[in-house]
């Protein structure tokens, strides 16, 4: 045998060379079969999720609710056992049970059901049980039977779908259409009372169940349904927008016009019933301006209760409150105060502040427990879905209109809520001027809605104005300021014959309201400067009224005031109603060695944090404008002469939800921290932020109360300074 140099036989070498391509070919064949298997598995997986998309989609939403745990939903669930009616107790689990059976019937008409299908269909009921375990264990008495009913419905639907697939399909379609039509008709006929009757949890489960079933019906003909939904999306994209805010024509509105700030302030000041008490005491007349920041229903509660609690201990407080500034939810709070509390001012003579008589009627908190979340949520799930499915036709009002009606009903049969904005204030009345701040999405600037022309709107627009004869309802003005994104659409306001503005939530621009309040303070101070110049013989342009009786702005309250002639010395005070914050802008309080960073989330987080920082900075600048130059942060304490009296709410410590429904327990928590002057200077639990802020509010309001005791009456609430050794 002939061998090669390395000892291998030539035939062996040739054989190996012939087997090489064969091995590669076999390997390629196996890889090809693997690709086919992977492709088949991918197609199978895609088909699995495509056919089950409606069930998976709704199940995913319920799971997302559990994971995200939005404060509004957790608060509703946590307080369900104490606030829900019997009808709501029995009703909120029925839609998921019905949707389980109907959804499986729709799926069984196309595919054989698997055990995983039953699990996905029961996921809403499972999720509701999980919510009960996490947030309200007492609710298990309703969710566990509901889960058992869903499991039974799933088993029945599986058996019936196998035996009678066509009948099951027809029954599921009929039930879905009839239930959606009935719910839609009820919502259209009674957009407020019907959703409130069934409750927010039932609205949520019913809405998600019907959307899932409608998607299930659409999945029966995916190509046709996809084309139609594309048409609906196109129509929604090309739609002209929401309906304009209803205008009140000049012939239907009182012909009071829109007075300027200067003219209105002078008329209001001259009509004050307790001027003589300050003239006799030689003290300037206190003029209070309050602002309430945004934050949904808890901000509304804070604004309303802080002002009402101050009135409860100081009956003369409404006579000195010239104006309130509201942003977003704070606008609802200032509106409620003007409608419900301020008209109850029972005194015209000056009365020093004292603890209210326990036998007297307390603050009416019923408006704050009004269910404002169910009406817009029902409109979103039912009316807006129907509008979406009927392209190019706008049939139903948007959620903003519905919520505005719900807000107007917070104080039933109260004419102030629906009267024209210009008519909402009289210079000789006890109601303050109400300013509602919105954001113009076209310019990114403020638009201030107010009965006074240009009030608080330095460098901003205002409505109504001298050039606009039309008006809007007061409740509409307040709610334009509180147009939350997504839940309610932006507002379309006609400001002149051929001009509209699209207005959004006022918190987009500046959430505290301090910028607008300080603009109003600047306008009043400017009036004092012009009066002083006019009285000195200077030629001053502007609406000065009678400068023979000048308005004199005085920077301190405790010093003697100049009441010579018919002039009136004025001491301006500012009461910002804000979220508790013990940090000053520009300071770093803790190390951040590894801050989170996200390419997707960073732009949105930046906008949100900038919004919050702008509000905090506005409050800080307002504080500096009132504080002595040597202590602009008032770190060394404060006194009555500073004129800055903040009222703070520890939102995170009280676990208050951002939304449009507040439980009775949460309302009681906010009330307990509002103007509790008896807590000032008393020992408290230093480990409790709530106790610390309760004392802070009590002391700040005691400082404010001293403004209403110029004669130094004994036993009256008040103190001259706080926080100084």
From TrEMBL:
Leader sequence segment: none
Tell me the superkingdom of the source: Bacteria
Q: Where are the transmembrane segments?
A: 53-74, 86-108, 115-133, 139-157, 169-190, 196-216, 223-242
Keywords from the UniProt entry = Membrane, Transmembrane, Transmembrane helix
Record flagged with keyword Magnesium:
no
Q: What's the protein here called?
A: Patatin-like phospholipase
Which species is this record about?
Sphingomonas kyeonggiensis
């Amino acid at each position: 045998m002939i061998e090669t140099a390395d000892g291998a036989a030539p035939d062996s070498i040739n054989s190996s060379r012939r087997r090489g391509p064969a091995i590669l070919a076999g390997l390629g064949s196996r890889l090809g079969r693997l690709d086919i298997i992977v492709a088949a598995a991918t197609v199978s997986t895609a088909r699995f999720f495509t056919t089950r998309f409606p069930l998976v989609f709704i199940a995913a939403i319920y799971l997302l609710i559990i994971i995200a745990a939005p404060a509004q939903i957790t608060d509703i669930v946590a307080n369900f056992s104490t606030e829900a009616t019997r009808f709501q107790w029995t009703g909120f689990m029925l839609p998921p049970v019905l949707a389980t059976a109907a959804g499986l019937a729709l799926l069984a008409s196309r595919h054989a059901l698997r055990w995983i299908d039953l699990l996905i269909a029961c996921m809403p009921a499972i999720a509701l049980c999980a919510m009960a375990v996490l947030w309200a264990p007492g609710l298990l008495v309703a969710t566990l039977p509901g889960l058992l009913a869903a499991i039974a419905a799933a088993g029945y639907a599986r058996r019936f779908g196998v035996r009678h697939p066509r009948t099951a399909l027809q029954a599921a379609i009929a039930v879905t259409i009839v239930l959606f039509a009935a719910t839609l008709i009820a919502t259209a006929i009674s957009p407020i009372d019907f959703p409130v009757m069934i409750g927010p949890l039932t609205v949520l489960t019913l809405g998600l169940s019907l959307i899932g079933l409608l998607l299930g019906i659409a999945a029966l003909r995916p190509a046709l349904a996809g084309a139609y939904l594309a048409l609906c999306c196109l129509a929604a994209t090309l739609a002209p927008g929401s309906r304009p805010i209803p205008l009140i024509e000049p012939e239907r509105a009182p012909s009071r016009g829109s007075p300027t700030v200067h003219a209105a302030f002078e008329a209001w000041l001259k009509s004050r019933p307790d001027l003589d008490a300050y003239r006799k005491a030689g003290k300037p007349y206190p003029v209070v301006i309050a602002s309430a920041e945004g934050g949904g229903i808890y901000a509304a509660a804070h604004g309303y209760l802080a002002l009402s609690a101050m009135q409860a201990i100081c009956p003369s407080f409404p006579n000195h409150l010239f104006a309130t500034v509201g942003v977003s939810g704070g606008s609802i709070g200032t509106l409620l105060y003007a409608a419900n509390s301020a008209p109850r001012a029972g005194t015209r003579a000056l009365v020093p502040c004292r603890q209210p008589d326990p036998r007297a009627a307390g603050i009416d908190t019923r408006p704050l427990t009004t269910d404002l979340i169910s009406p817009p949520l029902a409109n979103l799930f039912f009316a807006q879905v129907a509008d979406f499915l009927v392209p190019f036709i706008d049939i139903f009002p948007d959620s903003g209109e519905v919520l505005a009606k719900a807000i107007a009903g917070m104080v039933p049969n109260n004419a102030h809520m629906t009267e024209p904005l210009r008519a909402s204030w009289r210079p000789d009345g006890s109601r303050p001027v109400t300013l509602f701040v919105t954001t113009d999405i076209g310019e990114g600037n403020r638009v201030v809605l107010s009965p006074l022309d240009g009030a608080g709107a330095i460098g901003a627009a205002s409505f109504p104005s001298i050039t606009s004869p039309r008006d809007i309802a007061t409740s509409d003005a307040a709610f334009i300021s509180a147009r939350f994104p997504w839940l309610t659409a932006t507002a379309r306001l006609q400001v002149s014959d051929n001009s509209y503005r699209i207005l959004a939530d006022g918190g987009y621009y500046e959430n505290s309201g301090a910028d607008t309040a300080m603009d109003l303070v600047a306008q009043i101070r400017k009036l004092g400067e012009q009066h002083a110049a006019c009285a000195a013989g200077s030629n001053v342009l502007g609406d000065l009224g009678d400068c023979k009786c000048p308005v004199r702005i005085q920077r301190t309250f405790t010093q003697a005031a100049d009441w010579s002639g018919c002039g009136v010395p004025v001491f301006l005070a500012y009461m910002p109603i804000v979220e508790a914050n013990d940090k000053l802008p520009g300071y770093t309080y803790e190390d951040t060695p590894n801050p989170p960073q996200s390419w997707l989330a960073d732009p949105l987080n930046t906008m949100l944090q900038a919004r919050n920082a702008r509000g905090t900075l506005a409050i800080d600048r307002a504080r500096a404008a009132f504080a002595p130059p040597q202590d602009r942060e008032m770190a060394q304490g404060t006194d009555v002469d500073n004129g800055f009296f903040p009222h703070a709410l520890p939102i995170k410590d009280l676990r208050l939800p951002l939304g449009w429904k507040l439980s009775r327990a949460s309302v009681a928590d906010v009330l307990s921290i509002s103007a509790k002057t008896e807590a000032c200077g008393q020992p408290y639990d230093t480990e409790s932020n709530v106790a610390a802020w309760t004392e802070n509010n009590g002391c700040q309001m005691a400082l404010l109360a001293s403004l209403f005791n110029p004669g130094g009456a004994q036993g009256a609430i008040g103190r001259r300074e706080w926080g100084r050794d």
